[in-house]
């Protein structure tokens, strides 16, 4: 299987090269040239598989022989070995036909662990085989950073540089990143917002000449295809547990960079019967405005109580647009060019196609805290702020009460004690035992100006030999 760029001008790459390349040389994102498709009988035969065995079935066709089955299986086993729940992604019912998929049972308490523990182990394998050293550069609004750091800290061939917006991630999120003192881990608090961090990372991928000795950058953000690929698995896993393929399932997904929900879209294209994909946004609602009013225009970023979704430019939306425009790379190049000036308008046919599966909802902070309180009062279940937005979006937007709706619980509430307190909870939600000493650990990070030269100089000056 080859991987092609959404902008049509970059060379097609093998799986391994696509994983190592991150952003395509034409500024696009890599996607598989064709998607594997599974028929109903095949999907039905997976009922009851463990998460790890299901991951093997789903990931195998994408890697196209780059790893043997036993290599892939070993990487998968290792990646999910430190999850706290034996089901890896347990489903919890919170109402009739309404479920929460707990994607926060990994080491850093967010859904990012599903793909980033896998990506860390995959990179370790590929780089050792190639005897190659790389610099990982990533942007985080709080969760990708710690998952990537835990995924990569042990890799001898990786120096990892994570940019987070200074003062705009929760204290738990910051400490999770900055208390990892391994010499190959570098945290940069950028005096800017998440979009600034992401722009800087993307600009650095486009021109890597600041790196000495031909060192290559590798992406841990969801621009890296392997991130999306690993996230497809839990859509199948949850739907199978609820009766797929014999009955459809809907998903409500707290959305920022559009990677998570895009994995759900791919699951549906690969044969999973999905009735609705609900895009749940906070006040940074560009995707909601786009789907509901064809208004895809940038607005100033708002700092919300769901900080991980404080994102205006959603990288992976481009991957969806590529499909909506008939996989026409030139059309996507033109559209992205239009968006670089602040807004873009989708064609009527592209929007109509998107609306066949997607709908959207926006929830501001005051409503989000109300949802946390309501669900807790009714069920005793404590939602994190991002998940609460997804739960409310599901309630407002689902069109069929008989179809189970799965709300992706993207983070553990203990990562966001301020929001939880605002919802009327007297006590901070407890951190899991393995993080009990988080507030006593030494931190290490550098604060840098929002200037690309400052960041690139820092990266170039902190590479190991
Ligand atoms: C807790 C949490 N929820 C939701 C999201 C949004 O996911 P995505 O960026 O894949 O849309 C993120 C970050 O991306 C997150 O960290
Ligand atoms: N919410 C994310 C933002 C980065 O998204 P990614 O999925 O592209 O890595 C975060 O927590 O950092």
TrEMBL record:
The keyword Acetylation does not apply. NCBIfam families: thrC (TIGR00260). Its EC number is 4.2.3.1. It comes from Simiduia aestuariiviva. Residues 2-80 form the Threonine synthase N-terminal domain. One of its GO terms (molecular function) is pyridoxal phosphate binding. The modification N6-(pyridoxal phosphate)lysine is found at residue 112. This is Threonine synthase. The keyword Coiled coil does not apply. Belongs to the threonine synthase family. Its cofactor is pyridoxal 5'-phosphate. One of its GO terms (biological process) is threonine biosynthetic process. Keywords: Amino-acid biosynthesis, Lyase, Pyridoxal phosphate, Threonine biosynthesis.
């Amino acid at each position: 299987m080859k991987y092609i760029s959404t902008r049509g001008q970059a060379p097609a790459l093998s799986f391994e090269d696509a994983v190592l390349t991150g952003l395509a040389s034409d500024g696009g994102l890599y996607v598989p040239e064709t998607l594997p498709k599974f028929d109903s009988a095949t999907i039905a035969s997976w009922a009851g598989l463990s998460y790890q065995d299901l991951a093997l079935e789903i990931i195998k066709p994408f890697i196209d022989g780059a790893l043997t089955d036993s290599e892939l299986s070993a990487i998968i086993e290792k990646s999910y070995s430190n999850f706290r729940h034996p089901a890896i992604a347990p489903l919890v019912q919170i109402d009739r036909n309404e479920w929460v998929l707990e994607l926060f049972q990994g080491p850093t308490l967010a859904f990012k662990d599903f793909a980033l523990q896998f990506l860390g182990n995959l990179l370790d394998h590929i780089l050792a085989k190639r005897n190659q050293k790389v610099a990982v550069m990533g942007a985080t609004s709080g969760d990708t950073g710690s998952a990537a750091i835990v995924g990569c800290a042990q890799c001898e061939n990786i120096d990892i540089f994570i940019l987070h917006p200074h003062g705009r991630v929760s204290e738990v999120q910051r400490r999770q990143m900055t208390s990892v003192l391994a010499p190959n881990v570098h945290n940069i608090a950028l005096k800017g917002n998440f979009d600034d961090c992401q722009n800087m990372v993307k600009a650095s991928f486009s021109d890597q000449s600041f790196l000495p000795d031909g060192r290559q950058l590798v992406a841990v953000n969801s621009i890296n295809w392997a991130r999306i690929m690993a996230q497809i698995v839990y859509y199948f896993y949850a739907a199978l547990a609820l009766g797929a393929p014999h009955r459809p399932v809907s998903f409500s997904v707290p959305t920022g960079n559009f990677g998570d929900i895009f994995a759900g879209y791919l699951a549906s294209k690969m044969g999973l019967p999905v009735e609705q994909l609900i895009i749940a946004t906070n006040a940074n609602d560009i995707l909601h405005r786009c789907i509901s009013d064809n208004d895809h225009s940038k607005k100033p970023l708002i700092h919300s109580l769901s900080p991980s979704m404080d994102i205006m430019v959603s990288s992976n939306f481009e991957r969806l647009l590529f499909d909506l425009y008939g996989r026409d790379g030139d059309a996507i190049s033109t559209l992205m060019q239009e968006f670089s000036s602040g807004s873009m308008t989708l064609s009527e046919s592209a929007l109509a196609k998107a609306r066949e599966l997607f709908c959207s909802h926006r929830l501001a902070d005051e409503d989000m805290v109300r949802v946390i309180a309501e669900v807790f009062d009714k069920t005793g279940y404590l939602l994190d702020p991002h998940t609460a937005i997804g739960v409310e979006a599901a309630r407002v937007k689902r069109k069929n009460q008989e179809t189970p709706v799965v709300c992706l619980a993207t983070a553990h509430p203990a990562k966001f004690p301020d929001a939880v307190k605002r919802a009327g909870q007297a006590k901070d939600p407890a951190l899991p035992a393995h993080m009990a000493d988080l507030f006593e650990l030494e931190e290490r990070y550098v604060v840098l100006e929002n200037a690309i030269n400052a960041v690139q100089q820092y990266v170039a000056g902190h590479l190991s030999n």
